[in-house]
Design goal:
globular, single chain, alpha+beta, six-stranded mixed β-barrel, 24 helices, six-stranded mixed beta sheet, 49% helix, 23 strands
Length: 816
């Protein structure tokens, strides 16, 4: 405590007299810590942060029943009930699904929200508390209970009723079905999964009734609605023991109760309990792999920043050598010198952490709303105590690890020699270490640069690949309607909606159909010739479209013709259009036109009227899709929503509102979604996010590497000023001195480049599964990254080299 005032005085004097140096160190730390904090913020939001409103989520597990094929096995309600009663090692068991409803209140225009249909002890398992009213009990989710009561979120309650208390007992409409609000889930609860932000919870039977399904099917043995399961683990039970018991129960159900086995494969099912709520097990591994990759990249950037801190502090010590020698001659101990410099390093670390939070917020802001793992979206940088603590700890560890050595070496000066002449040993002793740090920085930058360029080229290849569909000028939207419509009523409504949209100025054409072939739209069926055996059939997509769909995407017939308006009618004969890949599999080299297909969806044999070229999805442009296009009257059931695509002459916000107004005029009680422009890039948001993040981090690493190289070369010039002055006094020309410095820098850059090529190879192999149309060892990416790095190195070396060339030998020798 006696020396604390002196240390604080030294720190204050340091900030006042060496502001530019302090700013450079803080900026370096901020870039490294900020990028790392941004990635930690993503991981925290997507994986680590507890779900709001869930109590003791660590004892809650996702239960998945895995089949040998890797898919999830769904249980019938009797199977689920038997499993829940027999699983005595579990505290409770619940099932939930994820429908979407149009929610409205009275004359208020409806909004589309995500919901969870639940069965069993859902709220008890999660420990959710009501903000008002009460929550659904397990008995109220089973057969025979009142199906008209729902629980809503605080967000929806505030939006519709102004407060949670004002919502209880009020009438609410789900897809125009009247329901009563039983209660409001409290503490910001939005569901049991991070990828689904639910606003409504209702019994599974009520959800089936609203969606037009049979309630008897839900609660009987003919349907299997229970695939997504939740379990609360008992505190005294081991996870393995609970899993073994579940496996034994499933084997017994398959052996002793064959009537319960909906597909005779329960004996092959393997139960898996995944403790901790957040991302469910079916998507968590993909998100974890993405975040691990980003965390590794951010750690490399942080290492580059740490190396810079070390070099900058070493360079500063050379500049302060005379001051240190003078203080030691006046009685200051080496420990006192080292302690003072270490305190200054810690202060710089704290300032770097504060500035790093700002950098992290900026990086996160650039990627707000971007998708990771094809499901989850990053919602921004939540500046809370967790991220602030992470930034401070990262800064403290950085400065302690990389600031201790310069501080200790600053006090290790040969006082006798230093008083007689400049101590050049300090520059030579650590030359190899400093050069290695700088070379490592350039190696890391080259590694990140190659990875970023590979992903950028992949994005370019994906977005320019020919899928057979022309997205330019096309917008899409989903429009819901009543689910109790017959197919004939649905067709009449579709015609009215299309006519209304096509009458909007600026619209060229409109059609019902999928916005791309990656969308789960339509159904799948085993397609074959009449009387074909199962082995002779081909698994294909059955996609209903209206006649204008092909023209909107500029798809022409290879053979035969496409749909006309008179093909869109009720009743047989049904016409179909095949993709070339499917026609080849079914008919070989024979012409498919005027041939018939085997029954599809129980309908009479469809008649092939045309064949279109190969079409593919944006996710895999080089893999043709096997598709049977049918008219909109063909599918046996209506889905409760239309997928509409519209070709526009010039899309803008006003045209979007005009389209919404045209639809709203026909369906005034239904919410109308915002039309969204289509593009190939929109299908690759995960790749786009990863490539942009990696490109940004590579750019930050390049900036840090440039600062590091500058500090190393400046360090060398400062340590060899006497030598360079002597050379110039003896007649060496300025350009020769400059070449001497440049050669040293070139050796560092070349060494870092060679080392970076190895790192780039490892990076390219890591990214191999994410590349499309570009080889992992793509020469263009390697050469471009190395060339850009060379330009950065040249800029970084110019200032210290120029200063070396402008040395005044007389003044320099007099000072030395």
């Amino acid at each position: 405590m006696d020396i604390l005032p002196a240390e604080l005085h030294g720190v204050t004097r340091f900030l006042r007299h060496e502001l530019r140096f302090a700013a450079l160190v803080v900026f370096t730390l901020a870039l490294g810590i900020g990028s790392t904090a941004a990635v930690f913020g993503m991981a925290d939001q997507l994986l680590l942060r507890p779900l709001p409103g869930v109590r003791d989520g660590g004892r809650v597990a996702y239960l998945r029943l895995n089949t040998p094929a890797g898919a999830g096995k769904a249980l019938t309600t009797p199977e689920f009930d038997e499993l829940g009663q027999a699983a005595t090692l579990l505290g409770a068991l619940a099932s939930h699904n994820f429908p979407t409803f149009d929610v409205s209140v009275g004359d208020v225009h409806g909004v589309r929200v995500d919901a969870e249909s639940i069965y069993g002890d859902y709220f008890e398992i999660l420990g959710v508390r009501p903000a008002a009213g009460r929550l659904l009990l397990a008995a109220e989710t089973r057969s025979g209970s009142d199906p008209t009561r729902v629980v809503i979120s605080e967000r929806l309650a505030a939006s519709l009723y102004g407060s949670a208390a004002g919502a209880v007992g009020k009438r609410i409409y789900l897809n125009n079905h009247p329901m009563t609000v039983l209660g409001v889930a409290g503490d910001g609860f939005r569901g049991s999964r991070r990828d689904v932000q639910a606003d409504v919870w209702l019994p599974m039977g009520a959800s089936a009734s609203i969606s037009g399904d049979s309630v008897d099917k839900i609660f009987g043995r003919s349907g299997a609605p229970h695939e997504f399961l939740l379990a609360r683990m008992r505190a005294d039970v081991d996870q393995k023991a609970a899993t073994d018991q579940l496996r034994d129960i499933l084997r017994r159900l398959a052996r002793d109760e064959p009537a319960y086995d909906s597909d005779a494969r329960l004996v092959e099912v393997e139960p898996t309990l995944t403790l901790g709520l957040g991302m469910p097990p079916e998507i968590r591994p993909r998100i974890e792999s993405l975040l691990q990759l980003l965390a590794g990249v951010a750690a490399l950037v942080l290492f580059v920043a740490c190396a810079n801190v070390t070099n900058l502090l070493l360079f500063r010590n050379v500049g302060r050598r005379r001051a240190v020698v003078t203080r030691m001659a006046l009685g200051a101990s080496p420990g006192r010198i080292a302690r003072e410099l270490l305190v200054q390093s810690l202060l710089l670390g704290i300032l770097g952490a504060v500035a790093g939070l700002g950098i992290g917020w900026f990086v996160s802001f650039l990627f707000r709303g971007q998708s990771l793992g094809s499901v989850a979206a990053f919602h921004g940088f939540p500046l809370d105590h967790r991220i602030a603590l992470f930034a401070v700890l990262a800064s403290m560890v950085t400065t302690l690890l990389f600031g201790t050595m310069p501080a200790v070496l600053a006090g290790r000066v040969d006082l006798g020699l230093a008083m007689r002449q400049a101590d050049v040993r300090h520059g030579g002793r650590l030359a190899t270490f400093r050069s290695a740090l700088s070379a490592g920085q350039f190696a890391i930058t080259l590694t990140l640069g190659v990875g970023a360029l590979l992903l950028v080229r992949t994005m370019h290849n994906l977005t320019t690949a020919d899928t057979g569909l022309d997205f330019h000028g096309v917008v899409s939207l989903w429009q819901s309607h009543r689910v109790d419509m017959s197919r004939a009523e649905s067709s009449v409504l579709a015609r009215r909606l299309l006519a209304a949209v096509e009458a909007v100025p600026g619209v060229g054409a409109a059609a019902m159909g999928p916005p791309d072939l990656d969308t789960h739209y339509g159904g799948r069926a085993q397609i074959g010739l009449p009387g074909a055996s199962p082995e002779q059939r081909v698994d294909a997509r059955v996609v209903p479209v209206t006649p204008s769909w092909f023209g909107i995407f500029h798809i022409a017939a290879m053979r035969g013709r496409l749909f006309r308006d008179d093909d869109w009618r009720e009743g047989p004969p049904y016409n179909a259009v095949l993709t070339a890949s499917l026609a080849r599999k079914l008919f070989g080299s024979e012409d498919a036109v005027d041939r018939t297909l085997g029954g599809v969806f129980g309908r009479p044999e469809p008649h092939v009227i045309g064949v279109v070229p190969n079409l593919s999805g944006n996710q895999s442009p080089d893999v043709p899709k096997d598709v049977v296009f049918v008219t909109y009257a063909f599918p046996p059931v209506t889905s409760g929503a239309f997928s509409m695509v519209v070709r526009t002459r010039s899309f803008d916000a006003q045209l979007a509102e005009n389209i919404r107004g045209a639809l709203g005029g026909i369906l005034p009680d239904q919410p109308v979604e915002q039309p969204m422009p289509l593009s190939a890039a929109s299908a690759h948001r995960e790749q786009q996010t990863l490539s942009r993040l990696l490109l940004l981090l590579a750019a930050l690493a390049a900036v840090l590497a440039a600062v590091g190289l500058y500090s190393v070369i400046a360090f060398v010039v400062a340590g060899r000023k006497r030598e360079l002055a002597v050379r110039m006094a003896l007649g060496a020309e300025a350009w020769r001195v400059g070449r001497l410095v440049a050669n040293y820098a070139t050796a560092i850059v070349v060494g870092g480049t060679l080392l970076g090529l190895g790192g780039a190879y490892v990076m390219s192999q890591t990214l191999r599964s994410r590349l499309y149309g570009v080889a992992p060892l793509d020469p263009a990416s390697y050469i471009a990254s190395a060339a850009l790095l060379g330009v950065v190195a040249a800029i970084a070396c110019w200032v210290p080299t120029w200063r070396a060339m402008r040395l005044d030998p007389v003044m320099t020798l007099r000072e030395e």
